[in-house]
Task: inverse folding
């Protein structure tokens, strides 16, 4: 554990330097706030480290220590039960809850905006397109099953929530159906549909704020569960009677390719991989926003009714972020058919996995479980909702004999979207991370329509006019 001790000392020294510098000369990077009351000051404790570089140092040190512990004789048995990825997710959550690092940081936004597409490109380079094609329709079926589970789960959960005693903290707030409608958009199509369906339902800003808490809490618990199950997928597949032969064949083909082209990465290899990843991530970010802006300004001006309809659907369902993931996935697929694919032998997917683990840590740090006390009734409704979604998913998986991988990725493509579906896919098989991205993009298209159906059902259950 000499490396662990060295990392700890180095990080402590770095943090002392950063905190000393930020204390002597405050900058715009470190948020400052003056408490209005003593109670508010007690509730909003300033994190120990707020500077993005300090937060990055803590997260990287945390990841390094977790992986060291996973190999240590005294602790590795724990990681045989609970996957490493679960610790990479929840340890940063605990650090943020303990006010060591913040729940919100420019670092988290940057990682989600640029590091995720960069990692997807590196993971897609080794993609075996014929092997993906042989996976068959089960991935799509599980995605649709997940959407159906969200659509019917919301109204059923609201019906149960309305039975909670009035006048208690568990009672549903007025017009709760509007907030749940907005969340249905988030659980099918992501943040853009959260706003779109919320506006269609006339959800207030205060209710949207509560639903963000419910969304983050319930979705974080479910993602943590899926990451935990990744270490037990073979056992679960046997219980489900699933046919996972196509998945295993694809994994073996990737391993054979890696072994055939494996080499010690040179400086040229590392620079090439980083350049490819971040150049295309930046270009796709720029192009995605340009495309979204062009669609928004063009859809109403075109003369063709068909083209106007197509552009209207694209404007309603695909944000700049959606286009970014579509573009980076397409570029990765094209590069996987070229000699650039040989960079996998130098460790392209391993470098992509490092980025994925840092993304997981940032997502975990963003989860704020302290806010759960603000809406316990809605939290219970959210948990009931996700359980109905799970029941639908498990039933469908048993009927079509789908492996746990398809259940997990189909579910997360709905509940988490493109920001986390590739993460869950990579936890089960790094070779299949692109499948998570592709399904999440399909979820964007389903989001508005399925969200509107769920909104109407929620309104009917609530008896609203």
Result:
């Amino acid at each position: 554990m000499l490396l662990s001790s060295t990392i700890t000392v180095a990080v402590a020294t770095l943090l002392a330097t950063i905190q000393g510098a930020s204390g002597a000369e405050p900058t715009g990077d470190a948020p400052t706030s003056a408490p209005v009351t003593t109670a508010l000051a007690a509730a909003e404790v300033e994190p120990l480290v707020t500077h993005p570089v300090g937060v990055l140092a803590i997260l990287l040190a945390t990841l390094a220590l977790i992986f060291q512990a996973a190999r240590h004789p005294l602790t590795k048995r724990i990681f045989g039960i609970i996957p490493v990825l679960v610790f990479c997710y929840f340890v940063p959550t605990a650090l943020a809850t303990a006010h060591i690092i913040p729940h919100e940081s420019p670092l988290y936004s940057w990682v989600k905006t640029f590091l995720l597409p960069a990692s997807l490109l590196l993971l897609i380079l080794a993609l075996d397109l014929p092997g993906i094609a042989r996976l068959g329709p089960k991935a799509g079926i599980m995605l649709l099953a997940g959407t159906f589970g969200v659509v019917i789960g919301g109204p059923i959960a609201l019906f149960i929530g309305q039975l909670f005693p009035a006048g208690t903290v568990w009672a549903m707030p007025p017009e709760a159906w509007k907030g749940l409608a907005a969340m249905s958009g988030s659980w099918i199509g992501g943040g853009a549909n959260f706003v779109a369906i919320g506006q269609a339902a006339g959800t207030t800003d205060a209710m949207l704020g509560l639903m963000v808490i419910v969304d983050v809490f319930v979705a974080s618990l479910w993602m943590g569960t899926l990451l935990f199950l990744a270490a037990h997928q073979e056992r679960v597949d046997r219980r489900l009677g699933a046919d996972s032969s196509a998945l295993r064949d694809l994994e073996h083909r990737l391993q054979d390719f890696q072994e055939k082209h494996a080499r010690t990465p040179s400086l040229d290899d590392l620079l090439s991989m980083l350049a490819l990843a971040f150049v295309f991530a930046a270009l796709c970010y720029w192009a995605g926003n340009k495309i979204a802006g062009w669609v928004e300004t063009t859809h109403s001006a075109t003369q063709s009714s068909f083209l106007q309809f197509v552009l209207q659907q694209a404007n309603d369902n695909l944000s700049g972020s959606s286009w970014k993931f579509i573009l980076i996935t397409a570029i990765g697929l094209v590069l996987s058919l070229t000699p650039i694919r040989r960079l996998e032998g130098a460790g392209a997917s391993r470098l992509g996995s490092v980025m994925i683990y840092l993304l997981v840590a940032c997502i975990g740090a963003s989860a704020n479980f302290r806010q759960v006390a603000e809406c316990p009734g809605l939290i219970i409704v959210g948990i009931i909702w996700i359980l109905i979604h799970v029941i639908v998913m498990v039933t469908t998986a048993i009927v079509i004999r789908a492996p746990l991988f398809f259940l997990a990725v189909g579910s997360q493509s709905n509940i988490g979207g493109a920001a986390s579906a590739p993460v869950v896919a990579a936890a089960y098989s790094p070779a299949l991370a692109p499948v998570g991205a592709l399904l999440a993009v399909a979820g964007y298209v389903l989001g508005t329509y399925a969200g509107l159906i769920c909104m109407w059902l929620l309104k009917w259950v609530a008896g609203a006019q």
